[in-house]
């Protein structure tokens, strides 16, 4: 089955700096890769996703890149703000409707003012 | 749109009792719902995939007789933790996949914090 590895487990940056979180996946059939932000005790919130037919997607300060050959994808947050502090999870699925998500281990991002 | 609710949000029970958690899609129909368990400072671990009108598919290592899942309608799935023990204490989160729109997006419920004494 699919296995998703996520690094780093913790990341501390200064406000205004960029943050990068990386994930690798094992199943070449996976074709949908969402990123979730989870605040303590809250539900995961989808912040951006990418499908295997594109290599990059951007939404304001957030971008995701995908390298299908290497089976890895990354989340990039620019101009970080203290409210970006949270746990971020990557996930992978085979993308057909009802496809289950396999999550990475999570990255605790801390943005220091 | 795409709101998923869970009830209860928090439950404390004695060891040996059973607890039922409801997951509802409020403004869309969900052919598929997923149940996850999340221990403190850990990732979401998929427990089972629930399809309306059929038996749930459990992930390896998840006891189907202990975690009973029922998906009786396109808007409701329930998870019953039977004979709960302290090690079952966790944050249980459901998600739903929308029927319409043909997207892969899963919408998560707010979670249920289970504490077994």
Written description of the protein model:
The complex is a heterodimer of chains A (113) and B (117). Chain A is mainly beta. Helix content of chain A is 0%, strand content 54%. Chain A contains no helices and eleven strands. Chain A has strands at residues 4-7, 10-14, 19-25, 32-38, 45-51, 56-59, 62-67, 72-77, 86-92, 102-103, 107-112. The radius of gyration of chain A is 13 Å and the shape is globular. Chain B has 117 residues and is mostly beta strands. In chain B, 0% of the residues lie in helices and 54% in strands. Chain B has no helices and eleven strands. In chain B, the strands form two sheets. In chain B, strands 2, 4, 5, 6, 9, 10 and 11 form a seven-stranded mixed sheet that branches. In chain B, β5 (45-51) and β6 (57-58) form a beta hairpin. The mean pLDDT of chain B is 91.
Write the layout of secondary structure elements.
The complex is a heterodimer of chains A (113) and B (117).
Chain A: E1 4-7, E2 10-14, E3 19-25, E4 32-38, E5 45-51, E6 56-59, E7 62-67, E8 72-77, E9 86-92, E10 102-103, E11 107-112
Parallel strand pairs in A: 2-11
Antiparallel strand pairs in A: 1-3, 3-8, 4-5, 4-9, 6-7, 7-8, 9-10, 9-11
Chain B: E1 4-7, E2 10-13, E3 19-25, E4 30-38, E5 45-51, E6 57-58, E7 67-73, E8 76-81, E9 90-98, E10 106-108, E11 112-116
Parallel strand pairs in B: 2-11
Antiparallel strand pairs in B: 1-3, 3-8, 4-5, 4-9, 5-6, 7-8, 9-10, 9-11
């Amino acid at each position: 089955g699919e296995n998703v590895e996520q690094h780093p487990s913790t990341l501390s940056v200064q406000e205004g700096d960029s943050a990068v979180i990386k994930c690798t996946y094992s199943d070449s059939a996976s074709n949908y890769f969402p990123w979730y932000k989870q605040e303590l005790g809250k539900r995961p919130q989808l912040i951006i996703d990418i499908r295997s037919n594109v290599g990059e997607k951007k939404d304001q300060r957030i971008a995701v890149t995908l390298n299908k050959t290497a089976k890895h994808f990354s989340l990039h947050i620019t101009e970080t703000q203290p409210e970006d502090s949270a746990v971020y999870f990557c996930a992978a699925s085979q993308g057909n409707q009802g496809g289950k998500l396999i999550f990475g281990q999570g990255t605790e991002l801390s943005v220091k003012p | 749109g795409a709101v998923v609710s869970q009830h209860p949000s928090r439950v404390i029970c004695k060891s040996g009792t059973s607890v039922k958690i409801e997951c509802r899609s409020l403004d869309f129909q969900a052919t598929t719902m997923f149940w996850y368990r999340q221990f403190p400072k850990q990732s979401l671990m998929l427990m089972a995939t629930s399809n309306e009108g059929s038996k749930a598919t459990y992930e390896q290592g998840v006891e189907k007789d202990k975690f009973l899942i029922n998906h009786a309608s396109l808007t409701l799935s329930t998870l019953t933790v039977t004979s709960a023990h302290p090690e079952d204490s966790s944050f249980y989160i459901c998600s739903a996949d929308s029927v319409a729109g043909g997207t892969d997006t899963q919408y998560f419920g707010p979670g249920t914090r289970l504490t077994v004494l």
